[in-house]
Amino acid sequence: DTFAASQYKTSDATSFAHTSARERWPIIITQGIDDVHRSLHGTQDEQALSEGKWVVSELAKLKYEVQHDRELTPIPDDGERDIEAYNNELKARGNLKWHSVAWLYAECYLYRRISSIFKQTSKWRSYDLFARQKMSTFKSSRPAVLELAARYKDIVTELEQKHTIQGAKTQEQLEEAEKVLFLEMCEICLWGNATDLSLLTNLSYEDIQKLQGSEARKASEKNILVNDLSKAFSILKAAQKQGKKERRVDIVLDNAGFELFVDLILAGYLLASGLATNVVFHPKSIPWFVSDVLPADFGALLSALAAPQGFYGTLSDEDKHAGKEAAPLSDTENASLQFLFENWSGMHAEGQLVLRPNDFWTAGGSYWRLPKTEPELYEDLKESELVIFKGDLNYRKLTADAAWSPTTPFTDAIGPMGPGSGIRVLALRTCKADVVVGLPEGEDERIKATAGGGGDSGARKWAWSGKWAVVQFSDGKA
Ligand code: F6P
Ligand code: MG
After folding, report:
1. How many Cβ atoms from other residues are within 10 Å of residue 204's Cβ?
2. Residues 221 and 187: beta-carbon distance below 8 Å
3. Alpha helix stretches (DSSP H) within 120-203
């Protein structure tokens, strides 16, 4: 790739890359080791036991290499086709060491290395070392899940039965109400990303619950620094008015649990309101950045909703630890969760909602490479009315994780995914890394000067915590 700006590196003392490589990654590997240990406890099978012990020792070696700034070594052949590109890039980039390497490549490489350890075994091949964490945080999201479930049930029931939204009497009012709800659903979907597990190394479960409620969302609106949602709504509305038969929206997913739950809320609303006729979800194919969605997470979420009392009526280990008591769901709460289950599994069964995995999403490079390295996927995305990219990592990949000036137009920073691509891109991103573009002149400086913003340290600290967000659109026209 050729960029007008250079990529963030783990040797940049003022970037979040620096702390990530030295503090976050070793913790994440340690948590993975703990998880495998827990699974080993219940294992009787001899082969699974010995392979499991080998997995633990390989993970421990990897952690040692990261902590002691060793060289990145070629990923062993585990039978998958994507290894070659990783290893070719490793060679092309020269002798790389953990503490002085391009952040984006190294972080992707880390998760691919972890995956290759499991894939070299036969009993642990498809094991997800982060599944436990993902499910248990989803359990802790109960208050926000219940609040949203009740609201979703009301809205969708009314749309399906009366083809309207409460209070709307004329066509104009209905359209206005549709827009208001669209903006709200997208904002729910945006902030649902603030709680990803790779940042949990410094957030408590209480903090997370606070972040998810509707009060929090209203208070956070002023933290959306650029908001192009109206443009996205116009695109979908125009296609609907043209009477186009098939109108697809794609969501390049980010995290499982609560974030996937709110992605489903948005998808369900788009279908029920007729703003889209199909929704395509793009999950990951290997355990990724701790909390990202794998196809199995989708199934796990639906199963939890199918038997909500068993899931939400009992406590997560963390809550038990905190001395909380189990509270059974009320009949109404139980009914709204059952409604979601039926509504979403219905969409899935009808083919209106599909999951489409592709190993491009777990490659080591940015999305600047999409047209060249994955032409079929590129053609496929052009068919969509709107491609929504969720979360921080997707934004880093869109912008190639480069140190752009923050006033660079979004459409420039996404390179081949921008003007002329034929893809309508919408990024819903809470900021958890240094890169940010498309800001008005002076905005970066203004926020740096706020408490915890980084001041004149040279670090853009405000952009690391998920407190601020950007919602940016590119229409893909030449
Ligand atoms: O900034 C911390 C971090 O873990 C990054 O490494 C990564 O880009 C991001 O958070 C993951 O967040 P998200 O789940 O929103 O992509
Ligand atoms: Mg993620």
Report:
1. 11
2. yes
3. 131-140, 142-162, 171-191
If one counts every other C-beta atom within 10 angstroms of the C-beta of residue 371, the result is 17
Q: Write out pLDDT tens, residues 15-74.
A: 999 999 999 999 999 999 999 999 999 899 999 999 999 999 999 999 999 999 999 999
Whether the CB-CB separation of 117 and 63 falls below 8 Å is answered with no
Q: Which residue out of 133, 196, 262, 428 has the highest number of ligand 1 atoms within 8 Å of its CB and is therefore the one to mutate?
A: 196
Atom of ligand 1 nearest to the CA of 196: 14
pTM of structure: 0.94
Q: Map tokens 């980084």 to a residue.
A: 454
3-state secondary structure of 468: coil
Task: Give the number of the ligand closest to the Cα of residue 103.
Answer: 1
Q: Which residues line ligand 1 (CB under 6 A)?
A: 16, 20, 107, 193, 196, 198-199, 254-255, 289, 391-393, 396, 432-433
Give the tokens for residue 179: 């827009």
Q: Which amino acid residue places its CA nearest to atom 7 of ligand 1?
A: 393
Q: Count the Cβ atoms, other than its own, within 10 Å of residue 47.
A: 12
**What tokens were used for 25?**
């990654």
Instruction: Report the C-alpha gap between 15 and 69 in whole angstroms.
Output: 17
Distance 315 CA to ligand 1 centre (A): 27
Distance of CA 162 to the CA centre of its chain: 34
- Of the candidates 200, 201, 198, 194, the one whose C-alpha atom is nearest the C-alpha of residue 219 is 194
The verdict on ipTM greater than 0.90 is yes
Could you tell me which of 297, 239, 308 has the C-alpha nearest to residue 263?
Answer: 297
Q: Could you give the 3-state DSSP secondary structure of residue 278?
A: strand
Q: How far apart are CA 439 and CA 460, in angstroms?
A: 13
More confident residue, 141 or 330: 330
Tally the residues of the chain.
478
* Type of residue found at 45: D
Atom of ligand 1 nearest to the CA of 198: 4
Query: Distance between CA 160 and CA 138 in Å, rounded?
Result: 28
Sheet of strand 353-355: strand arrangement: 224-227, 469-474, 425-430, 386-390, 248-252, 278-282, 353-355
Query: Any idea which architecture 16-129 has in CATH?
Result: Up-down Bundle (1.20)
Q: Are 176 and 256 in contact (CB under 8 A)?
A: no
Give the start-to-end residue ranges of the domains of the chain: 16-129, 132-474
3-state secondary structure of 447: helix
